[in-house]
Amino acid sequence: MFDNLIARAIVPVTIAVTGFVIFGCLLLYSFIKADMTAEAIRTLNGCASTVVKSTRSAMMEDDQQSIQDIVENIGTREDVQLIKIYDQKGDIRYSGQDAPEDILKVTHTHIDEFLQSPPSFKQKPQHDVDHSSGFIAISLPIFNEPQCSTAACHFHSDSEPILGFVSIGISARYLEKTLSVLRTRMIIFSVMVLFLTVGGVTALLRMNLFLPIIRLTYNAELAAQGTVEPDLPKSDHKLGKLNKDFRLLVKQRDQALEDLKGSKPPARNVGDGSDES
User: Fold this and answer.
1) What is the DSSP letter of 273?
2) Phi-psi group of 226: left, alpha or beta (phi > 0 → left; psi -120 to 50 → alpha; rest → beta)
3) Could you report the per-residue pLDDT of 136-151, keeping only the tens digit for each?
4) What is residue 168's three-state secondary structure?
5) What phi and psi, each to the nearest 5 degrees, are found at residue 247?
6) How far apart, in whole angstroms, are the C-alpha atoms of residue 144 and residue 155?
7) Calpha distance 72→83 (Å, rounded)
8) Residue among 80, 58, 79, 53 at smallest CA distance from 69
9) Which has the closest alpha carbon to 174: 84, 97, 78?
10) pLDDT tens by residue, 81-109
């Protein structure tokens, strides 16, 4: 009886609490993943902007070798998998890394999107995050600035807003490693909550419900065997009104038995059968 009661009391609570914790962990993980990915994109965007500013100063001096050196030096970084500078037509002018094919496809898609849209200063950077392949790629336009028209290398008109494009791809292994550690810790946390829920709920129910019910059952057995109310073990009052009502019923039973004994007629003496009348 009590095993079935314990199971019916603990299992739903355990399922509800664990389900809520798992849902909360999944929701929290999605938020953290989105925030970390957005921060990685912002960092990469800043890196790409630095490349644009560095190469622009070299462009003003018509120093193409310096531009190539900048691109190649950045490409030697361990986490950089792709860095390329494209011209207005989408052709590669400077390259600092032989990127994997999947990153090249993404950056070429970015450049195609830039070329298909009308060139303007409103074009925003294109980025792509591939968690399965483990890379982050970003492409942004190189805008024409007023001081470029007086530079030695300048061959664009002032009306051209876009001079070219920069694409950078970096490895996302550090991001994926951090997310993997986060997933593992959340799984461990969920398992801990499961065991703590089962243990805590079991202990609380045993102390506050099951043991009082066992005591009440024992008192009911004693009462059924004829034990009067004052001789019953004292209750812990954890069952509240149920304990009071039970003891009141036993007390009423004892009183009814006393009244029944007091209302019985006295026994009649039976003589030898002679008629004295």
Assistant:
1) S
2) left
3) 888 888 877 666 555 5
4) strand
5) -65, -30
6) 11
7) 8
8) 58
9) 78
10) 888 888 888 888 888 777 778 888 888 88
Give the predicted TM-score (pTM) of the model.
0.61
What does the alpha-carbon distance between residue 249 and residue 224 come to, in Å, rounded to a whole number? 12
Dump the DSSP string for 67-119: HHHHHHHHHTSTTEEEEEEE-TTS-EEEE-----HHHHHHHHHHHHHHHHSPP
Report how far apart, in Å, the C-alpha atoms of 59 and of each of 18, 92, 114 are. Answer: 60, 16, 22
269 Cβ contact partners less than 8 Å away, ≥ 6 residues apart = none
State the burial class of residue 58 (Cβ atoms within 10 Å of its Cβ: 0-12, 13-18, 19+).
middle
Q: Under DSSP, is residue 63 helix (H, G, I), strand (E, B) or coil?
A: coil
Q: Which residue has the tokens 């390329």?
A: 84
Long-range contacts of 250-253 (CB under 8 A, 24+ apart): 250/223, 253/223
pLDDT score at 31: 92
Phi and psi dihedrals of 49, rounded to 5? -65, -35
Structural domains in the chain, sorted by start? 9-178 (3.30.450.20), 195-261 (no CATH)
Token duo for residue 210: 């099951």
**Is the model more confident about 62 or about 79?**
79
In three-state form (DSSP H/G/I as H, E/B as E, the rest C), the secondary structure along 197-258 is HHHHHHHHHHHHHHHHHHHHHHHHHHHHCCCCHHHCCCCCCCCCHHHHHHHHHHHHHHHHHH
241, with CB counted inside 10 A (0-12, 13-18, 19+), is: exposed
